[in-house]
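Lab notes, practical 5.
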Amino acid sequence: MNGSKPARSRGPRKAPEADLGFSWGPVNSVFLGLGVGLLAMGYVALSRGSVTLAPVLLVLGYIGLIPASLLIRGRKEGKGE
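Output from the prediction step:
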């Protein structure tokens, strides 16, 4: 053997992640917390037999606040876009 070290394979390199413009901030956390709270209240109302309040709360939670928490973007300072 010639005394040289064998070349080490570091494994496949990961491609750099693309910035999709998604940022999670405190406003998103508030909306998510409100949505989960609304869902909890809806299921409690459902267990008590409410046929009008429970569906309204569940729809507002599932269709309103939870998607809003994912879709709302915070304003980034320093970006000239």
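Observations recorded by the TA: The CA atoms of residues 1 and 7 lie 14 Å apart. The chain has a mean pLDDT of 83.
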